[in-house]
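COMPLEX REQUEST
Ligand: zinc ion
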Amino acid sequence: MSSNLILKKICDFCGNEFEAKTLFTRYCSHTCNRKHYKILKREKEIESVKAVKIIPVKEPIISNIGIQQKEFLSVEETATLLGASRRTIQRMISKGTLKVGKIGRRTIVKRLEIDKLFI
Ligand SMILES: [Zn+2]
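STATUS: Structure written out below.
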């Protein structure tokens, strides 16, 4: 009864127009179906690998708790706290955006000065 039914569809894989036999046909050929399935499977695998890699990235946040309670920070700690690079912090210091103190050769950033950046 469906012999006179012609569904013009676009192949999910190659993008070519084809005549589908059923509403659920997504590919112009079995080859496209198989190739697309392989790609989707690979993407899924890549995503699951990414998800695993996210975990170690989260770890520094936990160690930030200590930094957040400190009144005086090093340039390194300031960078970690703000999620910026050391160079960015150094640039802010040389521009005068971030006021710092010096103890010997060490640059000390007062927590209050960091907070002032957001006022
Ligand atoms: Zn196709």
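REMARKS: The first strand starts at residue 7 and ends at 10. The pocket of zinc ion is lined by residues 11, 13-14, 16, 27-29, 32 (CB under 6 Å).
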